[in-house]
Amino acid sequence: MKLVAALAAIVLLLAGPLTGSALAATPASGAPAEAPVTGSPLVLTLEQVTPRLVTAEGPATITVTGTLTNTGPVAVDELEIRLQRGDALRTEGQIRTAIEDSAGTDAVIPQFADLPGVLEPQQRIPVRFSVPLRGGPGVGLALSQPGIYELLVNVNGVPDGNVRARLAAVRMLLPVLSLPPDPGVGTSPLEGSSARSPGIPFTMLYPIADAPRRLPGVPGEVTTLTDDDLADSFAPGGRLNGLVSALAQRAPVGSRVRESICLAIDPDLVLTAAAMRNGYQVRGPDGTLGPGRGAGAAGSWLDALVATARGGCVLALPVADADLVALTRGDLGELAARAVTDGRELVATALRTPVLDGTLWPADGLLDESTLAAVGTTSTAATRAFVLSAEGIEQGRAPATSGVVRIAVAQPGVTAVLTDPLLTRAAVGRTGIGSPQIVSNSMPTPSTAAGMSTPMSTQDVIGALLFRAQEGSKPGSSGPLVLAPPHQWAADGTGADALLSAVSRMLDEGLLQPRSLAAVVTAGPPADSRSRRLFYPVSAGAREIPPALIDRVRTTGDEINRLRGAAQSEPGVGASPADVFDPMLRATLRATSAAWRGRPDLAGRSEAMISDRIRELRSSVRVLEPPGPYSLGTNEAPLLLTVANGLPVAMTVLVELHSTAGLKVAPIPQQRVPPLGRIQVRVNAEVTRSGQFAVDATVRTPDGGSLGPPTRLQVRSTAYGTITVWLTAIAGVLLVVLVLRRMLRRFRGERSRPAPDHPRPGPADPHAGAPNPRAAASHPSHRNRPGPTTPRRVPTQRP
Predict the structure, then answer these.
(1) Hey, which of 12-21, 485-494, 636-645, 680-689 has the most confident mean pLDDT?
(2) If both were cysteines, with which of 255, 392, 403, 572 could 388 make a disulfide (CB 3.0 to 4.6 Å apart)?
(3) In terms of C-beta density within 10 A (0-12 exposed, 13-18 middle, 19 or more buried), how is residue 748 classed?
């Protein structure tokens, strides 16, 4: 068996290249000979495909440019590359299947082209090759009709002497509006042009947003970011720079393309750029601070955005593109409404241009009924028109992908402009939101970071848009075809330029007609249209910001509101409470950004950094620790405490002292600390014992909220306290009593002692037997009996 297996492997190894060439030489429609290798080390990154939209003006060949990288540990030899396609995609289901990388690409399989050299580990080589759009199946793509085709860039090779296999591939849609003439055959007028249809009203939302990176601060403080990625994105060649540049070049104000476009701008991104231009610092993963390098790029980008946005349609996103549904479900509907209203005001002020009022485009184009009530016409947000995905509206028997409908809610006059889910799905990309269009082994690569982009990120959008334009208006459609990419769009300057160029061509061809979003909102739904209920998919709920994180955001917001309650305006000095605490409250929305939907780890990291920064600002109001211990020489000596305020607003605080037995403190009245200043507080204290002991000093808001951490004070007392004095007095009294008692007992003892005298004779004892002088003397009846006497010396008594 081992011998048979070895012979089979040798046959496959020798026949692999021949088999591939043989199949490539025939217009095969079956599966390709090569099979993907699990764990392939090659990654193919496409940088450009020309043309992105095939037209009769040419070119007659399609050129692919990119980079092939060996990320594995072994060398790869005998590299080959080719471009192959599937049949024309004629239904929406086939387009969706192609976007999901499930469509066939074996209808036409040209021959492989050799890539010279051996690709060593960690080495990369440039890739560039061209294939005729027409021609025979063995040498070109053999296109003969306009339409949408699935295209596959296929790389084969032999890894370290193994069997030849497909090692990398990239799929994309190839839209063909019209075909250039075939040099060998010629072209008839019908073959070179697409079928015309009445132009469809078209509106496009152009999101300019990014993941939030700014940490909370106060006026006058240096802006701090979590990383310096925005410096690259604002610079020439960066994603955000490319989006604005492509818009200014391909869709200037007054053009038909610009008439159909409405900018959707994140207010937090604009404010961050404005803060960066004045200088900023970056906090590293270890907490160290370093200077930022993108101040100039941020200022230039913001100036370009202001110039480009002026005179066109501008729609403000919620602050930090907050997840409104998650906020409302977490009982923060008021904060959600504030994110909407503040967003409109901030964008209008920063860009010096009016924004589309009363219109909201939520994340993913989805809302539930409670969120709609929180930000609708009855709230402070006063929103009457919502831009929603057609998948977020209850559908009938004939699903609608466009139009303006009434929403069935309590308050009348609320409408929804529907966006096409197919176009949104194509704009998301094949590998998820924000991920590059790189495929290894024909399988998607998981997304790794929001905001990543590739030049090919809009290719599928162009194909899906041409499909909708050639499909024509559907019966019963009451509004425009709306292209709404995700808020965190993965397009860069090259991709945006290609998309805007394709839109311009479709407008020129009469396939699309520009329609501004403001005009659509103003026109509203048809008079005879019925109301529809909202539909919030379960999959969208699974991607929301987690409820536990929303609870922590609520806690942080409560701390900010307590700080605000203790703040006071001081005319001419410092800032107002609104200038200090409104930005702090908006900063909590960055942890709930839609950029973190489906990424709970990144959302948690953002919330932790924001809450830590708020805690630092709150801790700047505290009692300063003295350089040495307090020395008290009397039992009623005052303590002098220094209270510092690191906030640029006056604060009213309560100072509290906590100690073990040894110190009694009189009530301390409220103290007013000036902005960025300090005061000395005189505390009346009474020492109850001598020695050294610790006292904890804390600062609180008038409603009991904690500010800075407790400060440990050391107190050394050399005075006698009240208890000590009383104990000493009692001891003295006891000592006097004991002395007097001893003297009294001694005096009483001297007075009670009997005086000595001469014995007198008495009668004899009649009961006495034998004479016993001791007994007779002791017996009371014989004490006075006369007896023999002995002369005795009488002692002289002293007084």
Answers:
(1) 485-494
(2) 392
(3) exposed
How many independent structural domains does the chain possess? 4
Whether 593 has a pLDDT exceeding 70, the answer reads yes
The order of strands in the sheet holding 223-225 is: 223-225, 280-283, 289-291
Q: Round to whole Å and give the CA distance between 512 and 505.
A: 9
Task: Write b or e for each residue in 398-423: b if 16 or more Cβ atoms lie within 10 A of its Cβ, otherwise e.
Answer: eebbbbbbbbebeeeebbbbbbbbbb
**d(C-alpha 224, C-alpha 212), whole Å:** 12
Peptide bond into 132 cis (omega under 30): no
In whole angstroms, what is the distance from residue 643 CA to residue 673 CA? 7
CA distance 786 to 513: 163
Residue pair 163/12 in contact (Cβ under 8 Å)? The answer is yes
454 and 438 Cβ atoms separated by less than 8 Å: yes
Listed residue (137, 129, 169, 177) closest to 151, CA to CA: 169
Among 570, 603, 619, which residue terminates a domain?
Answer: 619
Q: Would you place residue 789 in the very low, low, confident or very high pLDDT band (cuts 50, 70, 90)?
A: very low
Q: What percent of the chain lies above the pLDDT cut of 90?
A: 57
Helix (H, G, I), strand (E, B) or coil at 516: coil
pLDDT digits (tens, 9 = 90+) for 51-79: 999 999 989 999 999 999 998 888 999 99
Tens digit of pLDDT for each residue in 132-170? 999 888 889 999 999 999 999 999 998 877 788 888 999
Mean pLDDT of 344-349: 96
Order of strands across the sheet with 42-50?
42-50, 61-70, 124-132
For the stretch 275-307, what's the b/e string if a residue is b when 16 or more beta carbons lie within 10 angstroms of its beta carbon? bbbeebebbeeeeeeeebebbebbbbbbebbee
| Structural domain boundaries enclosing 578 | 548-619
Token pair for residue 66?
């990119």
The residue among 692, 723, 754 that closes a domain is 723
649 shares a domain with 613: no
Q: How far apart are CA 239 and CA 497, in angstroms?
A: 12
Residue with tokens 């306009």: 146
564 and 686 share a domain? no
| Together in a domain, 456 and 347 | yes
- Could you count the other beta carbons within 10 Å of the beta carbon of residue 792? 8
How far is C-alpha 488 from the chain's CA centre? Answer: 13
The pTM of the full predicted model, rounded to 2 decimals, is 0.80
115-119, 264-268, 458-462: least confidently modelled range: 115-119
Burial class (CB in 10 A: 0-12, 13-18, 19+), 446: exposed
Determine which of 79-93, 127-141, 399-413 has the lowest per-residue pLDDT on average.
399-413
Average pLDDT over residues 243-251: 96
- Which of these, 180, 181, 125, 189, lies nearest to 157 by C-alpha position? 125
Domain CATH for 58:
2.60.40.10
CA distance 751 to 748: 5
